[in-house]
Amino acid sequence: MIMALNSFFFATAYLLLFTLVIIASGAVTRITCEAVDENGFETAPFSFLSDACDAKGYFFATLSAAEVEDNRKLTECRAFLELSPSETCVVPTDVNKGISGALLGSYRLLNDKKMKLYTVGPFLFTS
After folding, report:
1. Does residue 119 fall inside a structural domain?
2. Do the domain assignments include residue 1?
3. Is residue 86 classed as helix, strand or coil in its secondary structure?
4. What does pLDDT average to in each consecutive run of 10 residues of the chain (127 residues)?
5. With left for phi above 0 and alpha for psi between -120 and 50, is residue 58 left, alpha or beta?
6. What is the pTM of this model?
7. Kind and range of the H or E element at 77?
8. How many domains does the chain have?
9. Is 107 helix (H, G, I), strand (E, B) or coil?
């Protein structure tokens, strides 16, 4: 179960052009979590978008407990490729489960920031 004041999701997104790999600065990922209500019943999935990837291809997505609607508890979360910054390299691939969803499982606790750090990817787009 994922319950934290803030969660930090971290990955790398790349554009794959033939055999040349270019970092996809500006790419966006979607985080989707299964959820249960206060009685333990499954509810609609909860999704949100990351910030755009930085120049190194890393993305940052935070979620505080206050942002989760109706006191739902998030269970299984996955990261997906959502948006390429390129006009020509826009086809997502399933490398590291960029299409099917990379499971956010193990994490590293950042005590000073009161965050959990998850790592997924790298994800790839192609043309």
Report:
1. yes
2. no
3. coil
4. 31 46 78 90 90 83 75 87 88 91 87 83 84
5. beta
6. 0.77
7. strand 73-83
8. 1
9. strand
Cα angle value 107/123/45 (rounded, 5°): 60
Amino acid at 74: L
How far, in Å, CA of 125 to CA of 115, rounded? 29
The residue among 4, 25, 29 whose CA lies nearest residue 15 is 25
Sign of CA dihedral 47, 79, 94, 57: positive
> What does the block give as tokens for 111?
């005590």
Domain housing 45 = 6-126
* Closest by Cα among 84, 23, 72 to 47: 72
Is the distance from CB of 10 to CB of 60 less than 8 angstroms?
A: yes
Count other C-beta atoms under 10 Å from residue 106's C-beta. Answer: 9
Q: Specify the CATH number for the domain of residue 79.
A: 2.60.40
Burial class (CB within 10 angstroms; exposed 0-12, middle 13-18, buried 19+) of 54: middle
Question: What is the identity of the amino acid at 73?
Answer: K
